[in-house]
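Form 12-C: Joint structure prediction
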Amino acid sequence: MSWLPSLKTETPEAGFELALTLSRMAVKYTQPDENVRKDLREQYASNADSLTMASQVVATNFQTIAAANQYWAEAE
Amino acid sequence: MSWLPSLKTETPEAGFELALTLSRMAVKYTQPDENVRKDLREQYASNADSLTMASQVVATNFQTIAAANQYWAEAE
Amino acid sequence: MSWLPSLKTETPEAGFELALTLSRMAVKYTQPDENVRKDLREQYASNADSLTMASQVVATNFQTIAAANQYWAEAE
Amino acid sequence: MSWLPSLKTETPEAGFELALTLSRMAVKYTQPDENVRKDLREQYASNADSLTMASQVVATNFQTIAAANQYWAEAE
Amino acid sequence: MSWLPSLKTETPEAGFELALTLSRMAVKYTQPDENVRKDLREQYASNADSLTMASQVVATNFQTIAAANQYWAEAE
Amino acid sequence: MSWLPSLKTETPEAGFELALTLSRMAVKYTQPDENVRKDLREQYASNADSLTMASQVVATNFQTIAAANQYWAEAE
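Section 2 - Result
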């Protein structure tokens, strides 16, 4: 089973969470060691600029997911 | 109730505020501890580059929201 | 009266100035204290990288404004 | 044989991996020495902000690949 | 006379130069003092990362200009 | 002869190389001295974050080039 079978989601909120997943998977491909990633998460989770940079990645991925879902226009 | 039921807003200004919400939610998912976030906000709110980086995230999210609302073309 | 009644502008130049306004408003929402913002502006206005980062935000917002105005195609 | 014969992929996951490839190829063009790249990878793979910056590049390339595949709309 | 009468240019190269102008104008609006800007330019023109950051702004503005010109499709 | 006669390329790989050219030309316009650029290239080519930042510019320019070529859809 693929970790990314589709870019479609039922709701905008689920789409935002998929954007978070995409952001984390990019890190995982580069740093496959889960223990190292856990240490790093503790570092950047208490640094304001690190969190902002992570939010930028999420925002970029959310653009992609939102476009793929035509902005959930028909969900309303 | 979802925190993001729709990307649609009545006005451009409400869309800008939704972009701010998206930016903050990405941080919240990564750093769920409200007290830590409050401390960090005080730090970055008095640092010019930190504020600019945060504005970049808002600008990116506003692109998504504005496109989802077809730039509020019919609101005028 | 909204500070952002519309994304439409008469001219490309006015659109660029609206992009500057959007960039500043994102900062204002995060740091509402005008005196703090004034101090910060003096700092980053004399730092090359800070100015470049601010230009990046403006460029991103200008993408949104230009698309909203269909690139002012009929203005020519 | 080109390293980039097409932007099309069978699945979203394969598209994400192509985005990773594009990100690495940009580095390879600038720093062709494989040994230097290997050393650098060890450095940035254990630095949270470096990994986030790399994720930003992947997110940007994934936007391109996803658009090229029309978001794999028919794959579902 | 506006410094930005139109986003249209005759050629891709002229469009790239307009993207450079947009990037510089964003700085000029924030730092209107020409002497300060001249000093800063000397600094960042000899710093690799500063130049890369400036190139990022140009790339973003070139996206806008290229879209406004429909990628100069008919110019070929 | 223009250094950028067209955004069209025969293949995706050639498009990627044009994105690299655009990235370098932005630097060249800001720092026209070839010797200074050569020194800077040696610096950033051995710094992981500098290379990642450069890849970000390439990714942004590749978005433009890929869109201009309609993602080379008919090349397959």
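Section 3 - Comments
Chain F touches chain E at residues 2-8, 22-23, 25-27, 29-31, 36, 40-41, 43-44, 47, 49-50, 53-54, 56-57, 60-61, 63-64, 67-68 (CB under 8 Å). The first helix of chain F runs from residue 12 to 30.
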